[in-house]
Structure formats: C-alpha cells, structure tokens
Amino acid sequence: PKGVINDWRKFKLESEDGDSLSLSKKEILRQMSSPHKSFSRDDKDTRERFCRKMSMQEYELIQDEKEDETCLQKYRKRCMQDMHQRLSFGPKYGYLCELQNGEQFLEAVEKEHKSTTVIVHIYEDGIKGCEALNSSLTCLAAEYSTVKFCKIKASSTGAGDRFSSEVLPTLLVYKGGELLSNFISVSEQFSEEFFAVDVEAFLNEYGLLPERELPALENGNMDEQDVE
Predict the structure, then answer these.
(1) pTM here?
(2) Superfamily for 97-206?
(3) Distance between CA 121 and CA 67 in Å, rounded?
(4) Were 222 and a residue from 15, 146, 154, 226 both cysteine, which residue would form a disulfide, CB within 3.0 to 4.6 Å?
(5) Which residues belong to any copy of the Phosducin domain (predicted)?
(6) How many angstroms separate the CA atoms of 71 and 16, rounded?
C-alpha cells in the first residue's frame, strides 16, 4: 500500500545519519516520502517521469544490504511499539498503590476507568501470607501495568470488623465499579512459601489478568518469528 511505502521511506530518511548521506540522496528520499508534493496536480507527465526516476534512485539507495536491514529492524520496532500503544486502552500504573482510608478505597474502585481491572489486597501486618502477597503483587504490578493493584490495611478500611485475621489476606477484584471476585484467606490457595508466579497463575485461572504486555524491543533485535 502506498501509505505504508511512503511511511517506510519517510522513516528511512529520518533515521539516516546526516553526515553519511549526501545532500542529493537526502533530497531524493525526501521527495520519495511525499512524491506528489513536488509538482502541481496538472503536471501529470512530469510527475510520472519523476516517479520512474525515483524507482531507480531508490534502488541505488538500498544497495547496502547491511545498512538497510538495520534500518528495517528499527522500522519494525517502531511499528510494533505504535501498534501496542494503540491496542493498550486505559491508564497505566505499574506499581502497588497503598490506600490510606476507606474513602480512597471507594475512589479506587468506583472512579477508575471502566476498562481497568482493580485488584485490592486487604491485609494487616503480622498476618501470615500478607507480606508475601504484597511482594508478589508488587512484581505483578510491574508486569501488568494496565491493572491497578492496591493494598490497604483492614483497620484503615473503616470496616475492620468485617476483616478479621481469619479471613486475611483477602483479595477483592473489581471492574467498572462491580465486584468480580472475592478471595478470603487467599494464601491458603498456595504452598507455605509462594511467589509472584503462583499468584499470577491463580489469577489467570479465573481470567482476571489481561494478556502479558509486549516485551521491550531493544536494539532492533527481532527475528521473523517474533514479528509473527
């Protein structure tokens, strides 16, 4: 498609080293990225001759296979990042948020973006499993930045009598202001020593986590299988 071709040409021009590319070649690339802007609409013959010439000039510009492959990898990387950005709806977080009181708890649940999953850990210091679960959720928050992970002490909720030590740690999962899941004494679902991967598997079992985000594409290192 012409739009993709012109986008690639424009990217190649912008990524070229200014010191290594002659002025004539820079001008050729600039014109190829927007060929129809160089002539008036009525000058059809000149435009057609220009397009034929540009095809030959472009062929000459991409003879250096190593240089062109590096540029192509960078272009793929940018396209993948743009696509991921378009597909990532809603706000981003990336950390475990500490809620201080019941009002903040209600705001985190009711005033959040309707597409955002909110996972709240209700805990108390000294309760078995609470510290390990907080550590696990901190790791998961970095992996699933579109999910809002929160923690709040039971005594700070304003309803501490409903969260005795027998039901802690408790996980509450909300979306669009509605309670999706309620897991009391959730640490009993794991072995005595558990980690983020165990909590992740548990939440995935109930379909409460989105697909993992695309890994960062560094240095343009990406083979055809990665692209697919």
Answers:
(1) 0.58
(2) Glutaredoxin (3.40.30.10)
(3) 51
(4) 226
(5) 1-222
(6) 8
**Could you tell me which of 170, 92, 91 has the C-alpha nearest to residue 133?**
170
Any idea of the CA torsion for 218, 220, 223, 228, to the nearest 10 degrees? 80
CA distance 32 to 13: 9
For CATH 3.40.30.10, list the domain ranges present in the chain: 97-206
Using CA atoms, how far apart are residues 187 and 184, in angstroms rounded to an integer?
Answer: 8
Query: How large is the average pLDDT for residues 19-28?
Result: 58
**Cα-to-chain-centroid distance, residue 96:** 17
Are the C-beta atoms of residues 105 and 157 closer than 8 Å to each other? yes
**Average pLDDT of the residues in 201-212:** 91
Nearest CA among 212, 77, 88 for reference residue 142: 212
Looking at residue 226, what is its pLDDT?
47
Write out pLDDT tens, residues 134-147: 999 999 999 999 99
> Each residue of 99-133: b (16+ CB within 10 Å) or e?
beeeebbeebbeebeeebbbbbbbbbeebebbebb
Q: Give me 220's structure tokens.
A: 């343009």
Identity of residue 218: E
